[in-house]
Amino acid sequence: MLSTEELKRYQKQLVLADIGPEGQKALKRSKVLCVGAGGLGCPSLIYLTATGVGELGIIDPDKVDLTNLHRQVLFTEKDIGQSKVNVAKEKLTELNHNVSIKIFPFELTIKNSLEIFKNYDLVLDGTDNFEAKFLINDTAVKCEIPVVYASLSQWEGQLATFYAKSGGPCYRCIYPTPPKDMILNCEQAGILCALAGVMGTLQAFEAIKVLLTKQFKYKNFDYSKLLHFDAMKMQFQTLKIEKDKNCPVCSLPTEKIVLKETQSVLCQTGFDLAISVKEVQDKDLSQYVFIDIREPFEWKLGHIENAIHWPLSKLKSHEFPNLDNMEKIILYCQSGIRTKEAVQLFKDHGYTNVSYLKEGFSHWQGPVVTCS
Ligand SMILES: [Zn+2]
What we know:
Layout: H1 4-9, H2 11-14, H3 20-29, E1 31-35, H4 41-51, E2 55-59, H5 84-95, E3 100-104, H6 113-117, E4 122-125, H7 130-143, E5 147-153, E6 156-162, H8 171-174, H9 186-189, H10 193-216, E7 225-230, E8 235-240, H11 265-268, E9 274-275, H12 277-281, E10 288-292, H13 296-301, E11 303-304, E12 308-309, H14 312-316, E13 328-332, H15 338-348, E14 354-357, E15 368-369
Parallel strand pairs: 1-2, 1-4, 2-3, 4-5, 9-14, 10-12, 10-13, 13-14
Antiparallel strand pairs: 5-6, 6-7, 7-8, 11-15
This protein binds zinc ion.
């Protein structure tokens, strides 16, 4: 039932013929899981909360960082250092106390995804990497729930709602394995703040439509569309996407779908050389040569003591630092994403002793040097 307060709060959408009190009650009965409280998750969560979805689950292991603030609109300067899901819960409850917010302050893994997903009607993919997107897709196909997917890259965004149970394609029908030329995430490629806002808002919109569709049993929700938005050209394009009859996931009976860790592009080429911050710091730092592959402004803001600054752009131009191949090289960027490409370039150049800092400089606890 809707309370008097709720009838008043939602009156602008209650008057819409496609929602009405029955639609509003359907939203109130619905449970949506948002994986990632970042650039996409923040605007989605705000709208889903404001619109009166009954329960929202938020999964994100990260803490708020200064670099998040330009696009992650739930967070402010005073939240820096706090758990994203805790801050999100507090802010969203202030917005609408009728919505129950459940938080999961850890990473989604093959060990926990089924247990979490089975309690939700729909999943919103707010992640920025292929490993997470594959896990979300595979788990959702297995649990027979829809996923509202979005991705961002520089000036462009993509959006689709996948629901294999309906007969439509899944994410793996489009990308069976991580494409080598598409390993960019927002840290590597750069991202416009308002683009995350547009795509995250569209995700909320699609999620609301799916939840209402479920209520009214509309037959006309088309699960075979992929929207492409080019912000630079101010152009939206809708493409038809097809189900792949040989899809490695949705062509299988759900009980036969086995969740697997997605091998990163590096793993596929035979060398997963990630080393964690903790592993490095437990060792004698002097035995390593650290190479910072970030941009000059990032280097100036702070870098590992005694590191060599060698931006990724130089490596891409086939310029390499003069190093003894016997030295143990550890590459790092801000969060560990960009270095994957750098490791590949070093390998291609004949270096064998190369690894990279898994979590990147953002998690570094050792001595830091800043440039004035
Ligand atoms: Zn598929």
